[in-house]
Amino acid sequence: MGPADVHVRPAVAADVEPAFAVSDALSMVLYGRGEGSIEHLRAAWGHGEAWVAEGGGDVVGYATLEDGYVEVWPHPDHRDGDVAAALLDTVAARGGELETIVPSAADDLVGLYRDRGWTQAREILRMELDVTQEPRTPVWPDGVAVRTYRDDDAPAVHTLMVEAFAASAEVVLPFDRWVPWMTGDPGFDPGVWFLAEAGTELCGACLCWAEGWVKDVGVHPAWRGRGLGEALLREAFGEFHRRGLATVGLKVDSDNPTGAVRLYERVGMLPDRSYVMFSRAAPKGV
């Protein structure tokens, strides 16, 4: 398929199903299993912009842009570069600072971002734990108790995440965008958002998606080194085990300055794949 055969247009609601089929097929090729859900894709399209690439009347790829984060996915039958290139060029034309993470196994996509002059920033690891067997019981620091999330906890949890990630590359959205983005996710379930408190002080939180995904683990800097992050993770693992899930996963910067990788290894999580993070500065004058 050549460039002239690819037509990129803004996505409409009816495109969600064929677009999900694209990402599902690519996941099968890259990982041997499908990942994500059509509900998550539909939610992502609702929060940002989306485009589809058509070839021969079929959807052969799609791209999304949300808060500067880009995703470009061609169907595995169309990984010759033209589909992904047409989509990426369409998104990049929107301007602004952009970033993405690309599976290291997708060498065609990694090469495309490099060819387009994007900067390779860092490596992201995906780590996973089998929770079919009952995980170890968490051991909490003295004076700390755990509970699950309530709606009125949002301001305190957001403040904690900002403080916890201040020294890392992780970006926490402003409060008025963070709340609907997090609590509006299809995987949101307050029963898997675990808050650690010492009296009235919120000292740590582990925010998960119901399908068995650790979205964020944040420990206040003053509480680090006391085993709180480990206890929060083990609390989450136990709940997912009780719910009958097989695995729990997460993503983390390989060089996270808070020692997150060592923490995840300590609780038994193992890397099962890696991603390359790319960024592109806003064009001059934009």
How is this structure best described in words?
It is a single chain. By secondary structure, this protein is of the alpha+beta class. It contains eight helices and twelve strands. A hairpin with a 2-residue loop joins strand 3 and strand 4 (69-74). The longest helix is centred in the first third of the chain and has 16 residues, at 16-31.
Short description:
The protein contains 8 helices and 12 strands. The protein has 286 residues and is an alpha+beta fold.
Features:
8 helices, elongated, 286 residues, 31% strand, four-stranded antiparallel β-sheet, single chain
What is the oligomeric state here?
single chain
Ends distance: 33 Å
The neighbouring-strand order within the major sheet is 1-2-3-4
Q: Please indicate the percent range of residues in DSSP E strands (runs of 2 or more).
A: 25-35%
Poorly predicted segments: none
Question: Which structural class is indicated by helix and strand composition?
Answer: alpha+beta
The overall average pLDDT, rounded, is: 92
Question: What helical percentage do the residues reach?
Answer: 25-40%
The biggest sheet amounts to:
4 strands, antiparallel
Radius of gyration: 20 Å
Total beta strand runs: 12
What spatial form do the alpha-carbon principal axes imply?
elongated
Order of helices and strands: EHHEEEHEHEEHHEEEHEHE
| H/I helix tally | 8
